[in-house]
Design brief:
Helix content is 8%, strand content 53%. Strands 1-2-3-4 form a four-stranded antiparallel beta sheet, with no helix packed on it. A four-stranded antiparallel beta sheet has the order 5-6-7-8. It has a two-stranded antiparallel ribbon with strand order 9-10. It is mainly β. Strand 9 and strand 10 form a beta hairpin. It has a domain of 94 residues: Lipocalin (Beta Barrel). The radius of gyration is 18 Å and the shape is elongated. This is Fas apoptotic inhibitory molecule 1 isoform X1.
Length: 137
Amino acid sequence: MASGGDSPVFEDDESPPYSLEKMTDLVAVWDVALSDGVHKIEFEHGTTSGKRVVYVDGKEEVRKEWMFKLVGKETFCVGAAKTKATINIDAVSGFAYEYTLEINGKSLKKYMENRSKTTNTWVLHLDGEDFRVVLGK
C-alpha cells in the first residue's frame, strides 16, 4: 500500500472545474461547434433519484435533484451568444433512456448540416494561438 506521499497533488490551477468522482451518473457528452468555438455539453441523469445535471464547458448550468418524472426536457444556454439548447430524455424500454440534444429547436445533426450550408469556418494558428474565423453566407 502506498504511503500518503505517493498520492497525486494538484495545484489549484491544475484541478478540473468539477470532480470526476461526482459524475457517476454521466450518460451523455456532446461537442457543439458554435460561432464562438466548440462547447462541451455533459449530462448526468440519476435514474434512481431523477437527478439531472447539465455542464457546459465544465461549468454547472442546471441542477435538479429528486425529479419524480424521469423523462422530459432540460433547456439551457450555450456560448457567448446564449444559444438555446435542449436535452430530451425519452424512455426506450424498461429502465433504458435515450438522450438527444437540440440546438435552436433542431436536432444536433440537422443544426450542424444547416450551419455548414450557411457559414464557412476556419481555424487560424497565429503566434502560438488558435483563432476561429466564421463567415456567414
